[in-house]
């Protein structure tokens, strides 16, 4: 399947921007599977639940001059870890909130995460809503239009994905990368000198060599 962005290209010339991305959602909706598919192009039918959070990185070449590096925090969905979530979405530049199209409660949980992000995260955070497990269409209980209308009303990017079939996974993360204000970041980093814009770091800019947006 072709994707609107090239992965695994950390050596691309031009500007390299780094962003902190957090995944949120109820347990077992497939957050870790989405990340594994995006980062390693792999799928495991029997993944164990994430404990706390897992950290991964991946880059996307948007064009020959612009590469985005995501620092990805994949958070645990179990209720007992919920109190840890602010530690991971604090200062996040973007978020993917995941639900399972076969589990009606997971969309309601996703909506509560979106509300929490809008209350407590960076006011300029880019949020995407991902309806995962689209390969299980025969078990669908959340129709596409319902979720899509909610996402439009809430100002979210929206994709239905399948980590198992690799459907819309690259497109999801590429769309987030394209939504980031890259031109504004470059201008701000030049204007501010050592005071880097927390919404992203141009890693090829001289003052960014030892900086991190985590």
TrEMBL record:
* InterPro entries to which the protein is assigned, alphabetical: P-loop_NTPase, Small_GTP-bd, Small_GTPase
Location (main, coarse): membrane
Instruction: List locations, semicolon-separated.
Output: Cell membrane
PROSITE patterns attached to this UniProt entry: RAB, RAS, RHO
GO MF entries: GTP binding; GTPase activity
Q: Does the keyword Transport apply?
A: yes
Q: Name one Pfam family in it.
A: Ras
Entry keyword Transmembrane: no
Tell me the membrane topology, using the record's own terms: Lipid-anchor
Name this polypeptide is given:
Ras protein
Q: Which organism is it from?
A: Gigaspora rosea
């Amino acid at each position: 399947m072709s994707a609107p962005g090239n992965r695994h290209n950390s050596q691309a010339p031009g500007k390299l921007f780094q962003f902190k991305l957090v995944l949120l959602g109820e347990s077992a909706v497939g957050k870790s599977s989405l990340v594994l598919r995006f980062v390693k192009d792999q799928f495991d039918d029997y993944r164990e639940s994430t404990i706390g959070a897992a950290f991964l990185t991946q880059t996307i070449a948007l064009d020959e001059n612009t590469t985005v590096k995501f620092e990805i925090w994949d958070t645990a969905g179990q209720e007992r870890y919920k109190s840890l979530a602010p530690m991971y979405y604090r200062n996040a530049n973007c978020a993917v909130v995941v639900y399972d199209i076969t589990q009606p409660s997971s969309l309601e949980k996703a909506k509560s995460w979106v509300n929490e992000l809008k209350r407590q995260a960076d006011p300029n955070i880019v949020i995407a809503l991902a309806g995962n497990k689209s390969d299980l269409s025969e078990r669908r209980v959340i129709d596409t239009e319902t979720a899509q209308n909610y996402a439009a009303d809430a100002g979210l990017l929206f994709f239905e994905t399948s980590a198992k079939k690799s459907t819309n996974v690259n497109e999801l993360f590429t769309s987030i990368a394209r939504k980031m204000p890259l031109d504004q970041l470059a201008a701000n980093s030049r204007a501010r000198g050592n005071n880097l814009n927390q919404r992203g770091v141009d890693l090829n800019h001289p003052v960014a060599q030892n900086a991190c947006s985590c």
